[in-house]
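Minutes, project check-in
Item: structure for the 648-residue chain
Input as provided by the requester:
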Amino acid sequence: MKDGFVSVAAITPPVKVADVGYNVGALINAITNTANKGAKLIVTPELGITAYTCEDLFLQASLLEAAQHGLKQVAEATVGLDALIIVGVPMRVAGKLYNCAAVLDGGKLLGLVPKQTIPTYNEFYEGRHFSPGPSQVSQIEVAGFGSVPFGANQLFTCDTMPDLVVAVELCEDLWAPDPPSIHHAVAGATVVCNLSASNALVGKASYRRMLVLGQSARLVCGYLYASAGPGESTQDLVFSQHNMIAENGTMRAEAEPFGSGQTISELDVSYLLEERQRLSTFHTAVTPETAGYVVTPFHLELTHTHLTRSVDPAPFVPDNEETRDERCEDILMIQSQGLAKRLRHTHSTCAVVGVSGGLDSTLALLVTVQAFDAVGLDRSRIIAVTMPGFGTTKRTRSNAEELAKSLGVTLREVDITKAVQQHFADIGHDESVHDVTYENAQARERTQVLMDIANQEGGLVVGTGDLSELALGWATYNGDHMSMYGVNASVPKTLVRHLVHYVADNCGNEVEASILMDVLDTPVSPELLPATANGTIAQKTEDLVGPYELHDFFLYYMLRLGFAPHKVFRLAVYALGDEFGPVVILKWLKVFYRRFFAQQFKRSCLPDGPKVGSVAVSPRGDLRMPSDAMAQLWLEELDQIDPEDYEA
């Protein structure tokens, strides 16, 4: 199955100023080597056939004729290469000279795209030699190639991957107030290639990087940027071969200034189109033709693209410690301010939190404390309720009690054992049968206790369930599924851990930090089944529904990015295969899809709660999904996968 990936490259071959023969040889050698590495789209710098810094030599007929002959040599030498190749060349058209990008495929010149924004300021004086190129496309005769489209409004579409639509702009075009790439993207381009000769200046690399990342994000596109290198004249300027491959605001690969100049990675063009489809504010022309574009097809033999780019195994958790700390601070503030607003609005001076000594209830209690501090309410009006039952262990019970004491909140204990036993007697359930009734009766009893205490005290029940549990439906309907405000509702389990760890690292209280660290070391469990003979937790959630590390990965790529099951599986194997292996990943991915579809009815009536990241399942916001939708299509696709075909 095709998954939308295409291997691309931005490279800077060596040049000698005005030495067309040398430059053509270097171009052919670099392009061939890059294509042999699997690159299907190869972009080279501005005016690479002649070098950018030829100055008034661009007024010499000898150089222009040599450049045109050199373009023909590049085309002939790349006939057998399975790649779309874009090179920079000066081209004289109707008595005017244009700075052009030549788009080559299988030895054919598909089109010439002229630079539109000609800089004539500071160190640049291109206007002395070049004219701004027209947007409108016309046909011109090019020696050795015949009639060729010429103009900026061109799109190049891949016949074997229709989502791959390529457009071109040159250097200063990107820096202009109205870059051509905006119009290219609106017309349908998913990948924009920039042939550049941006000189090195103090601080310019970071600004250049910002432009490339910003444009790829704004246009939801892939952006390939290939810049001139040190072989250019250093009479007044130096060029650093700063090359970049960006995808929707993410840098997929970068050749740092004065580095190798060789950049190769993959773009996910199907993801780009899916993201545009999701964004109602991204408007495209009905067809490229109605936008005034000439569309030229090209051919690539696209099979299974080898991945080299980074795929984050924990997409909800930044891998950079400083960024992670900033993210944790933001999330805690969003959660606590959301609850603070609800407290003010309802004139509540009390909050009730069910605490189990587990991760989720610990985070909910920490958030509630922060909200009370923000509102100026006494922490003693936070009632932390521990409700021991059949599966409660000494460790979790102790952690809940000690944490409440450390935080200065009111601790109340309500043993639910007798109440649940009475309920079993009322409905005729055998207590020795540890089935779903046995488990859910405890969860619902706990919720009833919390709700009634809240009524008693004129307070709010603060929900503890997290995003990962809601995605899997790992919650008792009208039990822990329900609250008056769910502060963790859009925080995935993998991120809950980091939030609790962040508080432990920054609370400034050794006792509190020690308790939080022990909570982090405790296995995730609802503690609804009796403990083991030695008093330890018997019911471990991840043994039953699978590792949350995998489920959070599945959730992000399925729900946030809309990827198909086979693509989610491939990326999971690529990112997490060494830890889990393809067979295990496929097993839990099937569980994820079955549970995600089957448990939508629980998500359809969730309590209010703040959205903190790009993925949420609130029926009032991000996920409008029928409760009776079938998972058959997704599961059938997974049934076609042979995990032995995938290497970890």
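Outcome recorded: The chain has two domains: 5-298, 321-645.
No further action items on this chain.
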